[in-house]
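Contributing new complexes? Match this layout with copper (II) ion.
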Amino acid sequence: MSQPAASTADRHPMPGMMVYNVKLGMWIFLLSEVMFFTALIGSYIILRFAHPDHFAEPGAVLNVPLTAFNTFVLICSSVSMVKAYAAITQGDQKGLKFWLLVTILLGTFFVGVQVYEYIILAQEGFVPMAELYGVAHEIEGAALYGATFYTMTGFHGTHVTIGILCMWFVLYRAWQGKYSANNYGGVEIMGLYWHFVDLVWIILFTIVYLI
Amino acid sequence: MAGNGEEPRYFLIWFILFVLTMAEVGYAFLALPQWLLATGLILMALWKALLVAIYYMHLKWEPKRLWILAASPLPLAVILVIAVLTEF
Amino acid sequence: MSWMLPESFSTFGPDVDFLYYAILVVTGIVFVITEALLVYFVIRYRRRDGQKATYIHGSTKAEIIWTTVPFIAVLGLAFISIPSWNMMKNPDSVPADALDYIINAKQFEWEITYAGTDGVTGTADDISTINIMHVPVNQAVNITLRSEDVLHSFFLPEMRVKQDAVPGMDITVWFEATAAGAYPIGCAELCGNLHTTMGGTLNVYEAAEFEAWVASQSADADDADDQEDQ
Amino acid sequence: MDAHAHAHEMPWIRRYIFSTDHKIIAIQFLLMSLFFLVVGGLLAAMIRWQLGFPSEPMPGGMLLPDEMMAPTPAGAIMLPEFYNSLVTMHGTIMIFFAIMPLLVGVFGNLLIPLQIGADDMAFPRLNMASFWMAFPAGLLMLASFAVEGGAAGAGWTSYAPLSASGEYTGVYLGQQLWLISLTILGFASLAGAVNYITTIINMRAPGMTWFRMPLATWALFITAILILLAIPILAGALIMLLFDQTIGTGFFLPASDGEPLLWQHLFWFFGHPEVYILILPAMGITSDVLANGARKPVFGYHAMVLAIVSIAFLSWIVWGHHMFQSGMNPMLGTTFMITTMVIAVPSAIKVFNWLGTIYKGNIHLHTPMLHALGFVSMFIIGGLSGVFMASTPVDVYIHDTYFIVAHIHYVLFGGSLFAIFAGVTFWYPKMFGRLMNEKWGKIHFWLTLILYNLVFWPMHSIGIQGHMRRIYDPTQYEFLQPLQPINQFITVCVFALVAVQAIYALNFIISIWKGKKAGNNPWHANSLEWTVPSPPPHGNFELVPIVYRGPYEYSAPDVEEDYWLQDTPPPSETAAPALEPQPVAD
Ligand code: HEA
Ligand code: HEA
Ligand code: CUA
Ligand SMILES: [Cu+2]
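Output block (do not edit by hand):
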């Protein structure tokens, strides 16, 4: 499925996008992801603009240092992912497996921290539903904050989780020796997805935690 | 593809991303007017996002038409948000 | 079956009706020309033995013409619409001497609040009626439209007024009736199971009559309840 | 087909149920969406019964449960909440489960690989998954009729807050199923869109440059881009609304300072591109069929492509025209009025180019051609009525009246559905190997055209008289009572219209076995799908086709016949076909 050239080599089609199908497909899929996160982040921006008083100052409710650290973890996972890709382009099977495993661990750690953060916040009364959060923090009717926060970070977390599951699959195939220096499509599109999710987090972190 | 002999300096990018993240967190808590904070933070975030897209998603080594494709939804996102913002 | 608008009884009427008929004429012409050509071509060039279609790929000149002409036509229609639109919907266009009203929409009725004798809403002598609205003729009225639950749409067909009521928003609606009489009020936005029943009546009075009505209502403002009218 | 089955000893279930062959998937989509078309039509008939004869017992109404139809001694009378569910489900099913899968699912799957000369889609398994998400989503939608509280009843637009909390309507689960079903359908559409775009960009046969692609494929390509970018916005909005419904967030609920207008903006930011998703492929199909029927090249091919592209582009900046009376900022209203007016221009280009296409042709009025001509004439009416609503002051009066309902049906039935009839009849041989019956096809066309106009033309008129939409009993309003005879007339005509569709259904079903054998190229058309057997074998082309010219070279002076297949080598090169794949012109 994920051979860079083999599937089309015998057909000599038109030049097209000059990248192989699976990779092009992944890019196109990511465009739709951009629009999906536009809907969520856009709603947040708009609701916050309309009701600024519902949203707490940076750091007042959310734990910025913890999440900054978590952001760093995700960035590390991006570099390990790209190392895995670089390894297999050189035919380095060991490097591929090693860096994939590192990426999986970092990703899992990220999700773990996020779940931990949710639990702490929920214990403080910060939940997506109306009213409750107002009680705990004496910010009246601040339901919009909770709703947007959990929806955005939750969907991002879901994306990371799906990414981790796919990465296990890639790792399994790597173990079977399915990838090589001229057959690394699966690793590459896995990377594209992973970096995209990282990219979204970079935006989310700034908008949700810092502004 | 990235492969032309030398490997791109992935760790350098990683380091810049790390520094930018630290800078963002520091900047966010400065006593500056809100608009200045927001613009500065957004600029830094976009910078980081671009670094990821260009180097880690290796757009730098892709044909130009893929660039255009990748950028195509961004105007739509801007149109939607700006238009609706004028409502409130 | 007719393409004529029902008669209008507000100052918006002439504007809306003019635009409607202007568009009707423009689109009517386009409609007749295009459909006639279609039918004519089909008949004139239908398949015949030995006939071969003419091998043409297009014509830049024709292309330019039928791009620019509609472009100018539709832009023209847009521009002549702008002033009327601003007059109808821009809160700045409300005349200064307009009477203040508050209309509160809820499932499934219109609650209409009048300023009473003192001329300002939100005071003790406010009058309120349900589903029946009373206004003086030739006098602008300025309505603050609200909703308590879901979206509704305040629709006065003869006044050429329609405006959604949005919960959480105060929306300004104004109009000036030009003839006394009774006119329907409708709800034009699906608002629940009994959306259909959310109608009412707009009573437009001569100025003196209206004042008398206000006075009579203010006298027994405590039990002001118009529901028996229905 | 049989010869091939031996070569690929595949179990029946892999060949017909979980097939990855784009042609089989197209047929699956066809059967599914025709089923939903019938369902939507029956719902429409029930709607019309209530509007024509409000509060009179509906024939057969006794068969429905009491929550829908209140039993009385004389028979069962429709409840208002059931009416709302009917309208909502009619709109939803027609748009999402009938027209959209018909245009995109059927023609996208069938035509794209065949017309560009590819052996299949880029991702055949994803393609299969697309169908197997869409179909259960449709069943889920239907199932919502059976749950407690009934099916969703807030209109196909599901405006918040009516849709955001069950306390306003008494519909809880039904609305949630509506949201979930559309989310799943969204995934299916996305899978399709990714597939189509990749396939068209990367898998065109040698010589198939961008400007040698048939307009049907062009339209499907642009449509796929619209789907790709619009559906995720809907998905995001649906998910937020689902959270409002289920876990008590307040995105769109004013009680917690949420913004009902935000839902409308998100919905229409998707919704307007959506209506062009429903018309662009129809326009593409029409162009192909018109050129074939007129035996002439499409007039202004490049302008046609440009028009498709600019409609797609403009469709992103007009969504506010659905919200003129919503309490939106009037300045924004003015902006949207201007952009909306401008979008009429590319449509004008298309209409005039279609007229140019049949001008000086040698017009062969076969059934698909009749439907294509029907499309053009009906789309003109529907498009022109759009210009009325685009003018904001006029929209004040006609918004949410039957004028809008007339517009919807002129563009969607007169437009999209006629083009679908044209396309299904035209490409029927490529799916089933046989032709549909011409005589019955023509009878169906004329009866449908006449009855359809009798049904929907008067709706303009009652809309102009102020008849609101989505009301279950027009006689509740005194000023609408004089219109009741028209409503009854419409209703009677609808029953005839629905009955007439049986002709089409029978023609469709019987021709599968009894139709005339088609051969490769029954319509003497040019594009690549006509160079292969009907139906094409697995893998479509024996050899990768080489494309020498555009798809509309009808009646060219250099050749004897009045058609010229895209892969026939030019006369001078027959001896030694020297292929020089052209660079992509973009
Ligand atoms: C296939 C679907 C389709 C298509 C193609 C269109 C096409 C257009 N639509 Fe329509 N529309 C709908 C489906 C569609 N619409 C639906 C479903 C709704 C209702 C949603 C709901 O509320 O439930 C709706 C509602 C709707 C509204 C909101 C009305 C309201 O609720 O108040 C408006 C307002 O501007 C509008 C405008 C237009 C315009 C300007 C076009 C233009 O694109 C039309 C352009 C075409 C022409 C103009 C004809 C051909 C041109 C010529 C022959 C050239 C010469 C013309 C001139 C000089 C004028 N539409
Ligand atoms: C593509 C879209 C489409 C189609 C085809 C139709 C078709 C019809 N529609 Fe509908 N309609 C909508 C989309 C559509 N509608 C939408 C979006 C709304 C707005 C909903 C809302 O307000 O939320 C609406 C609303 C709407 C209303 C307004 C209700 C109200 O506001 O209260 C009415 C009322 O008359 C109506 C009537 C009809 C009728 C009589 C038909 C008839 O034409 C139906 C005729 C029957 C068929 C077309 C089925 C025929 C079957 C076949 C041809 C297949 C046979 C083949 C095989 C089995 C092999 N529709
Ligand atoms: Cu209130 Cu409809
Ligand atoms: Cu629209």
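Reviewers usually confirm one structural detail per submission. For this one: The beta strands of chain C are 99-106, 109-114, 127-130, 132-136, 140-147, 152-156, 161-165, 171-176, 181-187, 200-205.
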